[in-house]
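Async update (no meeting this week)

Hi team, since we skipped the sync, here's where things stand on the single-chain job. The sequence we agreed to prioritize is pasted below, unchanged from the tracker. I ran it this morning and attached the output directly underneath so nobody has to dig for it. Comments welcome in thread, and please keep replies under the output.
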Amino acid sequence: MYKAIVIDDEPWVIQTLVDSVRWSDCGFEIVGTSSESRKGLAMIRSQRPDLVFIDIRMPEMNGLECMKQAKAMNLHTLFVVVSGFAEFSYAQKCMQLGAVGYCLKPIDEDEIELLLKKVKEDLDLKQSKESPSLIERIMEDLPNTNLQIEPLLAGKGMSFHQERPLRAVCCLNAGEPLDLHGLRAVTLYHGYRKTIWLIQEESPGYLLSHFNAKRDQSFAGIGISSPVYRFEQLKTAVEEAELAAHQYFLTGRSSVCQASEENEADYSEFRDIYPALHRRDMTELETLFNRYTELLMSGRYRLKHALLLYHTVMTTIVHSDAAEDSPEPYLIHDYELLIERYQTVEEMVKDLKRMTIAYLGNLFSEVSANIRSDSFKAVLNYIHEHYHEEITLHKLSEIFYINPNYISQLFIKHLGKPFTAYLAEYRVRNACRKLRSGNKSIQEIAADVGIPDPYYFSKIFRKITGVPPREYRKAEMPQASNDRIADSD
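Output:
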């Protein structure tokens, strides 16, 4: 709900505006009124409203002067001017000062409501372009974020409490909204295939039991963080919840996973891979890979164990004398990229087995040589034309009748980077171009380039460019566009 103030020296005009216009239906609430311009300006300074209805001709200080002073204070308040004088010169001066509307007395309620809806659309667009979301503020450690979160918690009867801790909860790919009946929760993020809440836990283990009872509902994974007792722990808790929510990648079925407060399963069972790799014992490696698939799918282990296994195998291959073509670009340092590359942990282990045999058996060059570069060009052309759609190695395999592993190898051989990295960079490059134009919101641009989850888009964009998309837009947008935004403020 946006805030609005009405300033007019005629009380009947104020009363008419307040009583006859359906403010809440248009997305606004009246937070103050004044029949004196100077008191009205002080109210603008203290309340910092989004919109002010103001009369032009008032004693002491007219409406135009009030607008000038508000603009000088960088309050970014929008104004609608109300006047009984239908004079073009007044309207012209008002528009030059950034007024978004000019209304004549007597007030036409329908006209005002149409104007309010248009102003709300403009404010929504501006907010989506310039204001970081709550989850972005948390994950980017932006200042004063706790001042935004604490009122949200208080409104739900929640707080950072030593005996009843908060927990971050992440839900992935829910078919329908999950029932939070009986839980006190604040939504930190709700987007494409992902929702993140901050929930107060009334008793130990209650949230785990609550969500385990929801297994009949459609979702891929639910992750629950360790306890949160103070605001500074919130970022880590969100990361824990997201990681735990991806447990389905290991088990191959929908799962509810809580980050353990105790020591989880260690890595001892994975140590046998080192000597087997160095001995190049293919028989033992085959046995180990089958065993690791069973261990990871059992649910005893977490995604970090799968990532460790991946790194163990790949780093050993990188330093192998038998590897003619270095697979360094294959290395993955992020669990989200691991999940983008593979649909399940079973598929990941199969690929590790294939690459181990290829590299240690000195077969990679022979395999790659069997694929013509023309085929790879066709794959790239398809990506360039369809990057805004959902593209996977399996989809490319079906279109071009090439084994997905071969396609993956072609990206390494010709571009020195894996398919997922190339696609992400190509999408971000196109997003940069769209951000510079300044015509669409960040959420719209994310969808346009094939990443419909704006939160994930911001994470990928920052990884690749080093800055969040909104900061990139501010730095790169042409000055003329910046001026237009400033005028609208």
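Quick observations from my side:
The first strand starts at residue 2 and ends at 7.
DSSP finds 24 helices and ten strands in the chain.
Reply here if anything looks off.
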